TrEMBL record:
Superkingdom assignment: Bacteria
Species of origin: Streptomyces indicus
Annotated InterPro entries: FmdA_AmdA
Protein name, entry field: Acetamidase/formamidase
Gene Ontology molecular functions: hydrolase activity, acting on carbon-nitrogen (but not peptide) bonds, in linear amides
Transmembrane feature ranges: none
Length: 390
């Protein structure tokens, strides 16, 4: 196999019963990039003409302090201290960088943001050129706080004509309605036995839903090849971006086709947890300290990784992950099948019809998300099904 499994990993950090402070978290990378008005953009993605905020060498590691957009958006009052205070979060527990971004000029004059996300970067990788692949290994993910938001907004989500309902009284103790029809669900983090952490959503005064945390970074991408109007942060594409594939957690690798000199890597949209589909519009959105290794894959090795399809591709310790993207969910599924076929035929040497049969018998196709304009489907191919070194 021309690409190896990511080996470094770290779990989320900090006990759930205590407030996580950024100062107490380790910096696992050689470089450390904080999210500020000068290193981030709000709602748009870097392109070929975007000046890098940092340059790293091929194979170097980078720690990024990622800021969640939830709690600082205009429809949430653009004041995270006041917003999270409604849920009982004291001012001292609201991250300073989130407060600074909310008060900055990043989008102060914009009537409508091109997208909601705070995107950190771009980071140039020396020597990266179009035709290369940028391999993004997620090495560690640390919680930067102990709470976050799941938001549902008008005309968004899987049921835009049904939820949220203006006339429906909100009885859930974790819910808060915003001024423009937004419904915000507040989640906290709780420690379980053996150090396992869980998200907690209060459903009624006597019932709470408790679900495992699975932190990952929703937006990881490279600069688009165009120097024109920046792309919105909402739809994913060949550049990667808002893929929202929940399997891209510690130990995973994402392969992105480089489209501009230097690659222009960026990240954002951190999650503590997400279900496939992300049906309400967002998942458990909350800030992370993420460490990546950025390295280049070239020539025949790059072509074999993707099966010559020129689209994002991923892997974990146990699976290869083909990705399909389209505004139509049926077409996203078809694209994902084609991507999986291309990978298998290029990597194993099996013919396309045999690969098609294998996918039908053994692979799992999952809906990544249906809420980002361009919908996503990913295919999980078990590495254990192909014993030996391919």
């Amino acid at each position: 196999m021309p690409h190896s499994t990511a080996t470094a990993s770290t779990a989320t950090a900090g006990p759930a019963t205590a407030t996580t402070t950024t100062a107490a978290l380790p910096v696992d990378g050689t470089h450390h990039l904080r999210t500020t008005e000068k290193t981030a953009r709000w709602g748009e993605l870097p392109h070929a003409g975007s000046a890098p905020v940092l340059t790293v060498a091929d194979g170097e590691t980078l720690t990024m302090d990622l800021v969640s957009h939830e709690g600082i958006l205009p429809d949430q009052g653009r004041d995270p201290v006041a917003f999270f205070g409604e849920f009982g979060v004291p001012e001292r527990d609201v991250l300073a960088d989130a407060r600074a971004i909310a008060e900055s000029g990043l989008a102060r004059d914009a009537v409508v943001l091109p997208g909601p996300h705070i995107v950190t970067g771009p980071v140039a990788v020396r020597g990266a050129l179009p035709g290369d692949l940028l391999r993004v290994e997620t090495l560690s993910l640390h919680r930067r706080c102990h709470y976050g938001i799941v938001a549902n907004r008008h005309t968004r989500g899987a049921l835009p004509g049904e939820l949220p309902q203006d006339e429906l009284e909100l009885t859930g103790p974790s819910l808060l309605r915003g001024p423009t029809g937004t419904v915000n669900a507040f989640c906290t983090v709780e420690a379980g036995s053996g150090g396992t952490e869980y998200g907690v959503l209060r459903c009624t005064d006597t019932l709470s839903a408790r679900f495992p945390l699975n932190p990952f970074v929703g937006i990881m991408g490279v600069a688009s090849g165009s120097e024109g109007t920046p792309l919105s942060s909402i739809p994913p594409g060949v550049h990667g971006g808002n893929l929202d594939v929940k399997h891209l957690t510690c130990g995973s690798s994402l392969y992105l086709p480089v489209q501009a000199e230097g690659a222009g890597f960026y990240a954002g949209d951190p999650h503590f947890a997400q279900g496939n589909g992300e049906v309400a519009l967002t998942a458990f959105e909350a800030p992370l300290r993420a460490t990546f290794r950025l390295s280049l894959v070239r020539g025949e090795a790059a072509r074999r990784v993707q099966g010559r399809v020129g689209e994002p591709f991923a892997e974990t310790r146990t699976h290869w992950i083909a990705i399909g993207l389209d505004a139509d969910l049926d077409e996203a599924m078809r694209q994902c099948v084609r991507s999986a076929l291309a990978f298998l035929t290029a990597t194993t040497g099996m013919d396309r019809q045999t690969a098609y049969a294998y996918l039908s018998a053994a692979a799992d196709f999952e809906v990544s998300q249906v809420v980002d304009q361009v919908k996503g489907v990913h295919c999980l191919i078990r590495k254990a099904d192909f014993p030996g070194e391919l």
